[in-house]
Specification:
It is built from 15 helices and 21 strands. With 517 residues, it is α+β, with helices and mostly antiparallel strands. It has one domain. The strands form five sheets. Strands 3, 5, 6, 17, 18, 19 and 20 form a seven-stranded antiparallel sheet that branches. Strands 7, 8, 9, 10, 11 and 12 form a six-stranded mixed sheet that branches. Strands 13-16-14-15 form a four-stranded antiparallel sheet, with helices on both faces. Helix 5 crosses helix 10 and helix 6 crosses helix 8. It starts with 16 loop residues before the first helix and ends with a strand. The structure holds adenosine-5'-diphosphate and magnesium ion (2 copies). One of its GO terms (cellular component) is cytosol. Pfam families: GSH_synth_ATP (PF03917), GSH_synthase (PF03199). Its EC number is 6.3.2.3.
């Protein structure tokens, strides 16, 4: 990385052994004391060692905030509201989503099942028109040439279970703390005030989004029972503290709002639908089954992938939520709007004479369209269209494939195929299945150095940073009115530059925060 302070300095500074030990010790304790933590992996801590499930361990984190171009950070933050509106509009456009889903439905059972749930509820009539989006748009820095100004390119847009808003706010606080108290004391000190570290409101912002939906629900209907928020979760969940931070922030902002964690597999045993035209979702407290709440908001931190749907009951459970009066974050249509295939359709270059597909969703805001398009990188379908046929050739070409990543319609990390692994992977599939994948240009950000603390050990070297910007949006599917639209803080995830995937939960990345340069 180019030196970013005085020209004789390097960033981050080279650490003496004693400095490294001291920082490690400080971070270890600060992380546990402030909930920058995850549950230990089940395979490492055997059930006998932790029979009551009380242990927590530090989340992987960088020792220093990674340098990130200020203009890129501002570009990503300033475009978030336009992205929120765009994806709210896509979620309202059932015809557009239907046409996309139709193309992949025969080879992707998961997408097909989701669509079936939507169709069933549509037939009966949706009872709730309000929809909540807690989105995260992910980017990497892209430098066209070494002397051109860097810009951001979008990796993906998440519309379901956008995670790490809780831990990310804590990571920013950790780096602020170190900048004040520890970096100035290093053998090669980083003086206080030398680092520009922006505030990060991710936990607050996401909690506010949930509360806006919670209040909107109560403004629409006189609840039958006390109303509550339900977090639909996986069980076990290692990343539980990330979710707890949002819960605590909700309760900080509006003391007394009941928030319950409901494992996806327990939906049918713990919830029911009121036999009223509105179909309110009722939640029974496990500790006191006589106590019933009316669910105003269902926040999904599960249900984004096939693993959460092992049997027909799981789909019955998803249907129960979807047909209920609760405000969903997300609805099935909003979840589908986040499909990689949608991102590809938005980003596939059109000929000069064809207007951008964005005109269908973004009205009277040509500047927004221009700014959104600047963040797109080339993404191609692998279908029978002319660009699809062209991309199929590239994908199996041993040289051409090296600049690409192949993605299925999945979430949660660990699903992609990279570079020269693409041709053998595609050849192992029937060609009829190829169209459920997209082929995306690899974004190669400028090299950055940092030190990652993972499982108590330090990993030093070249890293790749991925910036996520959160957005919250509440809209009405019928009237298309947008009741709330905010940018809601950021996430920086950093991985070693030898690793293709960067998901912290998937085990490859680490939490980070930005140092603006
Ligand atoms: P998921 O929904 O599973 O998170 P992503 O599209 O975010 O899928 O891909 C997972 C990871 O793969 C990203 O976090 C990033 O590290 C890497 N990746 C994905 N697309 C690209 C790309 N175009 N260029 C470089 N890396 C990418
Ligand atoms: Mg994703
Ligand atoms: Mg991702």
């Amino acid at each position: 990385m180019a030196p970013s302070r005085a020209s004789d300095d390097v960033y981050p500074p080279t650490l003496s052994t004693l400095d490294a030990e001291h920082l490690l010790c400080t971070i270890k304790d600060w992380s546990v004391a402030h909930g920058l933590t995850v549950r230990p992996p089940l395979s490492v801590v055997a059930a006998e060692a932790d029979p009551h499930g009380i242990l927590a361990t530090t989340a992987p984190v960088t020792l220093f905030p990674s340098p990130f171009p200020k203009a890129c950070f501002q570009q990503a933050k300033s475009i978030q509201k336009a992205y929120n509106s765009l994806y709210a509009a896509i979620a309202q456009d059932e015809i557009f989503l239907r046409d996309i889903v139709q193309e992949i439905i025969e080879v992707d059972d998961f997408i097909a099942e989701l669509w079936q749930v939507h169709l069933k509820v549509k037939e009966e009539g949706y009872s709730q028109n309000l929809s909540l989006g807690l989105f995260r748009s992910d980017y990497m820095v892209h430098e066209a040439t070494s002397d051109s100004a860097p810009t951001i390119k979008q990796v993906e847009f998440n519309t379901i279970a956008s995670s790490f808003g809780g831990l990310s706010a804590q990571t920013s606080k950790l780096h602020h703390f170190l900048a004040k108290n520890n970096y100035p004391l290093l053998d090669k000190p980083l003086p206080t005030g030398d680092l520009e570290l922006p505030e990060n409101s991710s936990a607050k912002g996401l909690a506010t989004g949930i509360l806006v939906a919670f209040e909107a629900y109560k403004n629409l209907i006189e609840p039958l029972h006390d109303s509550c928020v339900v977090f639909l979760v996986q069980d076990p969940e290692r990343n539980i503290f990330d979710q707890r931070h949002l819960e605590y922030e909700i309760q900080e902002q509006k003391p007394g709002v009941p928030v319950f964690r409901l494992p996806f597999a327990e939906i049918l045993s713990r919830t029911s639908i009121a036999e009223t035209p509105k179909r309110q979702l009722l939640y029974q407290l496990p500790s006191n089954p006589k106590k019933v709440f009316e669910v105003a908001v269902v926040y999904f931190r599960a249900g984004y992938g096939p693993g959460d749907y092992p049997d027909a009951d799981a789909w019955k459970a998803r249907l129960q939520i979807e047909r209920s009066h609760a405000i969903k974050c997300p609805t099935i249509l909003t979840q589908l709007a986040g499909a990689k295939k949608v991102q590809q359709v938005l980003a596939t270059p059109t000929s000069d004479s064809t207007p951008s597909i964005l005109n269908r969703f973004v009205k009277d805001a040509p500047k927004d369209i221009e700014e959104l398009e600047k963040t797109f990188t080339n993404i191609f379908p692998l279908d029978d269209s002319p660009s699809g046929l062209e991309a199929r050739k590239m994908a199996v070409d041993p040289e051409a494939c090296k600049g690409y990543v192949l993605k299925p319609q999945r979430e949660g990390g660990g699903n992609n195929t990279y570079r020269s692994a693409i041709p053998p992977f595609l050849k192992s599939l029937p060609e009829t299945h190829w169209k459920s994948y997209i082929l995306m240009e690899i974004i190669t950000p400028p090299p950055v150095h940092n030190i990652i603390l993972r499982n108590g050990a330090l990993e030093q070297g070249g890293v790749i940073c991925e910036l996520g910007v959160y957005g919250t949006c509440v809209w009405n599917q019928e009237t298309k009115e947008v009741l709330h639209n905010e940018e809601a803080g950021y996430l920086l995830r950093t991985k070693g530059d030898k690793s293709e995937e960067g998901g912290v939960a998937a085990g490859f990345g680490s939490m980070d925060s930005v140092r603006l340069v």
